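S., here's the first fold you wanted:
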Amino acid sequence: MHDIKKVVLKEVDNPILRGFNPDPSILRVGDDYYIATSTFEWFPGVQIHHSKDLIHWKLITRPLNRISQLDMRGNPSSGGIWAPCLSYHDGIFYLIYTDVKSFSGIFKDAHNYLVTASNICGEWSDPIYLNSSGFDPSFFHDDDGRKWLVNMIWDHRKGNNRFGGILLQEYSVKKKRLVGPITNIFKGTELGLTEGPHLYKKNGYYYLLTAEGGTFLDHAVTMARSKSITGPYEVDPKNPILTSRYDCKLELQRAGHASLVETQNGDWYMVHLCGRPLPSKGRCILGRETAIQKMDWTEDYWLRLDNGGNTPLVNIKSPDLLEHPWEKSCIRDNFDSETLSIHFQSLRIPLGEDMLSLTERPGYLRLKGWESLSSMHKQSLIARRQQSFKYTAVTCVEFDPYSFQQMAGLICMYDSLNFYYLSITHNENIGKVLTIIVCDNGTFDYPIDEGISIHKDEKCYLKVEVNYVKLQFYYSGDGFDWKAIGPVFDASTLSDEYFTYIKEERFTGAFVGLCCQDLTGLHINADFDYFEYEENL
């Protein structure tokens, strides 16, 4: 299991949640800390990590695991779950989330819901619909028993600020819906793009924490306060209280979208979104991650980083809590369990027995071919986050295609427009072949032409090595003698920033995983013996 050690005064290394883990919402219940992060089009929805010491974190659940809670069929890439909020009151966990159905052009179809549970790792309720006026909803439990929802409002009208402010409305537990007047309590600061609101109460004030400046290099955390929950809100004279926007040399860039927690010892910490761009490309190939900062209250009741500045630190003072490390995850998954590892996710929907099975051939993951990698509906694909700048992933697959429309293999992907796919398929002239498909902002290429002939009835071992911006595929007939296949690819194309070249925004991160397609509609299957993911720090 794990060892529990006495307090050791040392530094915490940021980020605490590495790889695609954005928009953190932190919660303490007793001695337990939880962080919920966005998952966008990846299913199940919302990642929740657990910690006892604010240093070591373990992925424990994804609560939105049923179609009745989250149906993302047809959702665009980087749609789906935006900015969840996790809270707790009177023995009940509350999770608020947005399901974004469209966000291109002038409109955003963003539906906000509430689910609850008595056990954070148990079954969560079916959703209660709240509103669709904007995204980034957050729940606040006031000390008088009333509950309030805040979310940003999206204003599509010509000449108006699209980020139109922060709306406040009361929630009725009895009626299971929002009730009463809707109040725009905060129009934001000069930084603009006001979103990600969270309410807190301390020192006789309601504090409104917001994200501003957009989620890229100008991102920031701002604060305002009021004696009344409906305002007016006084802006912190030292805003932004956290940002990287003024120093491009900081290791942690994109700092913003924050959430606060008070420890059982009365100390305050803030978790926030960040990104670590590579100097050679300026791209965050690990996506948007979660970091933590130590905070202090001033004599005039404003919140500051404990070092007095407003830029994110890579190393912070260790909290005064018992150190509580977790057992490390296994590098190799032999698919011996009847349930999929928690580190894997699928796209948009759960994969039923018509798409995935761990029992039809015990000891193997069987993927049954469905739609293409361009599909927004039904893909037989599972993948895990890239969480290190350097990693190796390996698998062994048995697959006998008889059409060029049938493919299976190992994929490094950002989304349907950007991926590198080492796949087994069929060529009419050669037979069973190994090939590579590249999709670069929607433009396809086949860098090794017809492919490499491989034996029809034998296993094929596939491997990828990623070293910062370098991505190289390999193949083997026995798992020992490896041969490189294809050129060295640019791994930094699997990043948010790369989409700016086609004037689109994306918000997720790089994944590596396994998939199978059968565009004939006959659903032939590929059997994967194991999957290894090893970080090379």
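And the second, which I think is the more interesting of the pair:
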Amino acid sequence: MALLGVLLLGLAVAAPAQPSPALTFRTLTAAQGLSENSVYSIVQDRQGFLWFGTQDGLSRYDGVEFRVFRNDPQRAGSLSSNFILSLAEDQQGRLWVGTGGGGLCRYNPVTGRFQAFEYEQNDVNGLADNFVRVVFCDPQGQVWAGTEGGLHRFVPAKKHFQRFVHAVATEENLRRNSVRAITQTPNGTLWVGTGEGRISFLNRRTGHLQPDPRWAAASAVTCLQPDARGGLWIGTETDGLWYLPATGPARAIGRRPDGPGEAIRALFLDRQHELWVGTNKGLVHYQPATDSFRTYQHQPNAPHSLPDNVVLSVFQDRSGLLWTGTEAGISSFEGRPSAFAAYPEPKGPVWAVGEDGAGRVWVGTESTGLICYDATTGQRRTFRHDPRDPGSLSEDFIRAVCIDTRGRLWVGTQSQGLDCLEPGATRFVHYRHDPAVPGSLSEDFVRTVYQDPKGRLWVGTEGGLNRYNPATNDFTAFRHDPQDPHSLSNNFVRVVHQDRTGLVWVGTGGGGLCRYNPVTRQFVAFRADDHNPRSLSSNFVRSILEDHTGRLWVGTEGGGLCRVDDAARGWFTTFREPQGLPNDVVYGILEDAARNLWLSTNKGLARFTPTNSQFYTFDTRDGLPFDEFNAGGYYRGRGGRLYFGGVQGLVSFVPAAVRTNAVPPPVVLTGFRKFNQPVELDTSITVRRRIELAPSDYFFSLEFAALNFRLPEKNRYAYMLENFDPDWVQAGTKREATYTNLDPGTYTFRVRATNNDGIWNPTGTALTIVVKPHWYSTWWFRVLISWVLFGLLFLAYRLRVRQLLALERVRHNIARDLHDDMGSTLSSISILSQIARTHQHNQRTEQATALLDQIGDSSRRMLDAMDDIVWTINPAHDSMEDVVARMRSFASDVLEARGIDFTFRVDQSVAGLRLNMRARREFFLLFKEAVNNLAKYAQCQQAAIALVYEHHRLVLTVEDDGIGFDPAAPAQGGGNGLTNMRSRAAAMKGVLEIRTAPGKGTVLRLNVPLRS
């Protein structure tokens, strides 16, 4: 191996050392919704929103969208000016906004409104002027503002300002009290920087600003930044960067060619106590520990470079992400370069990679041959195929690289067999398939080269598996034999691995996973079975790894990652995209020192922790130079560095240097809409906890956001409406939920989210939603309805009881009639029959005949009465048509038998009337009594019967031209006819009138109230 190293050093061409990776800036501009591109100030509020102050408005950012606040003279509570110079949040969560010309504004997050504090002439307790360059909220809860006229402290109880100026008369220099910067050191001292160039502190005893004598007045002080030691970093207008320690003289920083520019616009000390300096010549990173600078500037052809060289503000959010405001937008970036380093060459696909004992990296490419990198010297050597040189590489398309324990370099090519470079040699030895030579390579399409722990070399081809025999310098081939179930399952061999028990595992392209036992010389195949969830997930195996515990992991094409749980039973556990894998094609698997598995896919890299089955995914958004990787191109170096080859080159990294975001994101509601129209609430939706909806608000939407700004496009959401959704709705990246036609009631809307690395905020946020019922669904209306229903039921009950009583009375009357009329008639018939029988025995024929005639008359009367009863109780005869027909028939039978001419007139209005059973019986029997009396006693020649309906009354008239009678005299025959008729009329609540006199005829008029 040493000889090979000497050879490479002798042949190597000098290559420049790879530069350290640059920072990746992700820029947002007005095109994405920022109010304007010149960002002067940045702050993060307690909810987690980021606020950007620009030349034309204030922008609030939730990771995806901006909400812009501007001055609107027609809207109360808007900003007083659109020129935003400074932002700060107080201890109550209110945002203070310093404007250029509009004074100081205070934003209330509960109401979403601004309160303006502006200069008023002759107001000694107000602002000195409306140009507020800086606003600062100290840890003690006090709010300070700097204007051209001095330092101001807001007095909340009186809602006015206390002003502090230098004791020296201001006429000497108009800029002496122009406060440009405010800060506080850890000892509680409040410092200001002025436009005159002074650094002054507030002397609380005298109530004046007192210049620090160690600082000589120079150009205007633009910014101040304290450190943990009590010192001050000072940015100036034209004199660069300075440091003023807690004790001792001030000193200039960076007066060198590679130092910051002269105009300092912003200073920020990050969590690593490293200083970020915004200048008019770019962003400068200064590390005090090493006194080193690095400048980041705009690169015209680099989309992820700084967007502009004029840097106006720098800030670090709670997750550690840094932000810089420029004159061309706002950019976020990580303070450290990406851990994923791309090799400068090759630019094309990489299919193989390995590392030799000297730490050199060997890279097999698709079109540029074999490349060797020496990281220690920065040198690179390329091996290419030369048709004129038989000892050169046999082909430039390299599919496999292996450096064995003897230092030999084995190279598998796409279609020209296997090459070997011995230590110290300058020419490659070629191994190829030759059908005429026993023991030659089984196929020239080589896909993998592997040396097992026992030193045996295995070569996988598209024509079977080969084991190299060093003693005879030939190969033993293993191929698929359809007649042998214990042969290799498929000849397309992609990967080989020998486990710690000595079994050899072979991954094939279409035949699944095979296990070879060197003792029995038999293969056992494990294949995918759609009916068995514990089987191998895919028959196309790309990679195999044995972890530190001896467990086997299998990467498949289309089936994700499989863990071998029980080889004897063929049981596997599969992890795929639903479990967090970015893609189900797993090309390579490597284990790092922390026992995590790293997987290369078609959609980036994944880090998998077997102990908790947690996936972290990484793609170009995380700093990877590309997302799509290739089979075979993966290797773990001796120092723990991992290598992965892909479609655009080679990526290497130290796993421990890869940063993940473990901070769960705050989750907030950002919008409320009805029928897709935004709704302005009296309380901001971000802090509101309850909303009431009218019955007409049957279509509404809620918008929400996870306030994680590190790759926010990877945030994921889940929401649920309690009492409506049965379970959490996995919304993916969708940031809104819509509901329609909710039943009246109380619901709780909950939403939670992950950050870019899949860390959930399990609590999220919640909103109570009360859907009010329609008036007819309210409790009071239901009580009213219940009482109405109760009343109706009671009324129906009373009516039913009344009907039953009426029916009972009818039944009683019928029973009485049956008992009285029928009983007495039947009794008389029985007595007459016995008497007639006696007369017959005694041969008194005439007397017997008279009695039989009397019995016949009684029977006919009884049958007639019985017929009346049956007709009365039949409901089919309720209509007046049936009553009129029976009346006409009875009148005809009785009157015509007496030779009496009669007319029977019925008005048409009577046809649709109906009589209940009792009224019908009483009405007919009264009519019958009247006709019988007329026939028996009137001695008339003419009769007229009329039936009309007028004024809701049924009127029956029976008139004759007979002899009449005296109503005051006793009734003829001593009967009760008139009395019965009057009784029946009363039962119908009717009025019976009889107009008669001896010799004058008779008129009977019955008037019965009736509804049609």
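Why I say that: Confidence is low (pLDDT under 50) at residues 1-21. The longest helix spans residues 779-841.

Talk tomorrow,
H.
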